[in-house]
Amino acid sequence: AIANNTEYGLTGAVITNNRDHIEKAREDFHVGNLYFNRGCTGAIVGYQPFGGFNMSGTDSKAGGPDYLALHMQAKTTSETL
Where does the record place the Aldehyde dehydrogenase domain (predicted)? Predict the structure, then answer.
């Protein structure tokens, strides 16, 4: 999709009455938040997880469960008793 021809991927929007276009955009757009038949701003963190891909984020969602992993450090420990 032409929408993916950028180094950013925060939001996208599609205005259409064609259901096939909506489904194609849903499959093809590589953006964090995709809006249909409305403006492409206005996500409310805590109500609607928000985040982008590529240079527009970390591929995780602020307010989503995957966001917590960004603030954690994986560690393995072992002890012989």
Answer: 1-76
